[in-house]
Give the backbone structure.
Amino acid sequence: MSAVLSSQALPGATSLAADLPSATARLDDVSLSYGSKPVLQALSWQLLPGQVVGLLGRNGAGKTTLLEALLGLREPQAGQVQLFGQAATALDDAARARIGYVPQHSDLFEGFTARQLLAYFKSFYPRWNEAKVEGLLSRWDIPRDQMISRLSGGQQQRLSIIRALAHEPDLLVLDEPVASLDPVGRRDFLRELVDQVLDRGTTVVFSTHILSDLERVAFNLAFLQNGRIAVQAPLDSLIEEVRLVSGPSAAIQALLAGSGAELLRRQPEAAGRERCVLRFAPGQVPLLHGELSVAELNLEDLFVELT
């Protein structure tokens, strides 16, 4: 892997039966294990141009592994990953130059100053936007001539974000990009993402444990559970269409058969009773259903129930 991607590069379960050559990224039946521990299991996923996807999963669910496999930084034991129609592990230089990446742990060259670091990476990218770089350095108060090792954690994370945005990538992958930023810094970054990145039709994938950030910018949410994308859909659709239904198992089965709802999760409770997360077709969500309890779910509830 070249220095460009390994040092600097940035979304449910979606059927891949229909070939979509325009997909920015595509994973087909990807499996990856660490020793005897499976992390990704026959995972299929596709990201289309202009999609903004928040990746959610419990700690240890494999979010970072998935993003690294997506970028070709980690080769799966089975399945295929393509970026811009090329194998992710064998991208040409032109394809690499279309990717921006902010890893969970900063990989900045601490012996450089911010100015030296950005000048180094500028040489790799024909679309480098110097005006954007200078504007962000000033607005985010990053000293240009101070050693990176002497910058605060928040300043280093901002610098990593600037490096990822500077060449106006077509695919931006962000792994916990704002973990070291205070609320004001997070809001400023999200505003930058919306105002300058989304307007270009960039495909954006980012994982975060800060749910309020997802509510601001993630038009789609993808839930990683048991090594697969359990569901991906626009946030508004999930709020409107997904319900927690609990009650007698027979009544839930009858509801499923009669409504055609999608079963997202089932959990047994007392004998003959269970709680299920169901996704109904638009306009078909029941308010009440006999013996069953039907409850709405907010984003935090969805995270708990689907991961």
Q: What stands out?
A: The two ends are 32 Å apart (CA to CA).
